[in-house]
């Protein structure tokens, strides 16, 4: 009787140990996958925007076309995920809220790509550490969150550290669009636009998740679908659609880079971009 009791007590302990070990390995695998995807995504971004293609050393200049390709791929995949899981494609929230997230997301990604013309990807990655301040500001304005004074102080210190690194060493960074302090200023301004819009995007997405019983693929589908329409409209108005298509037609390696970038983009959670 005592042996039976002892076995019944030790069995759950062994089960808990296996469960924790499996959870640890799954977590490690997920983190490694996200990191690998983000690194590949970053390298491809910098290659497309800063490395010339072909014997004539042509640079790809149509950042909105990258946004369009990324979003149309993600929209198709999210729609497939909803259909495969037999979940409704109907919008859960009002359409204008999806569009609001879409506009800020387009501005975020456009500023991110354009900034790569003037600052390197490592500098841009470090600058993202300053995202804390816009997230806190938007969190206070939209979500009515309250933060302690020490939180604002720590965010300010991190932002100042990033600013020093960007403004001084980046001044000698070689850019395909020129060199010097002026390019650094443009890069910083674009990064500020990126951080501000990205802070709004993530905060408003969080509010939508909390305000509606929303499947993540539902929000991704309608947000990226809106982005497809808006970015395509922007390309047509600017007259960049045909030149962008012609560029990737001439430079097949650029086409494959954009295709791979779009594939990597759909694997990254929207809150990470």
UniProtKB/TrEMBL annotation:
Cellular-component GO terms for this entry: membrane
Membrane-spanning segments: 24-44, 152-171, 183-200, 220-241
GO MF: antiporter activity
Keywords: Antiport, Membrane, Transmembrane, Transmembrane helix, Transport
Keyword Phosphoprotein assigned: no
Entry keyword Mitochondrion: no
Localization annotation: Membrane
Domain of life: Eukaryota
Pfam families assigned: UAA (PF08449)
Membrane topology designation: Multi-pass membrane protein
Family the entry assigns: Belongs to the nucleotide-sugar transporter family. UDP-galactose:UMP antiporter (TC 2.A.7.11) subfamily.
Name this polypeptide is given: Uncharacterized protein
Protein's organism: Glycine max (Soybean)
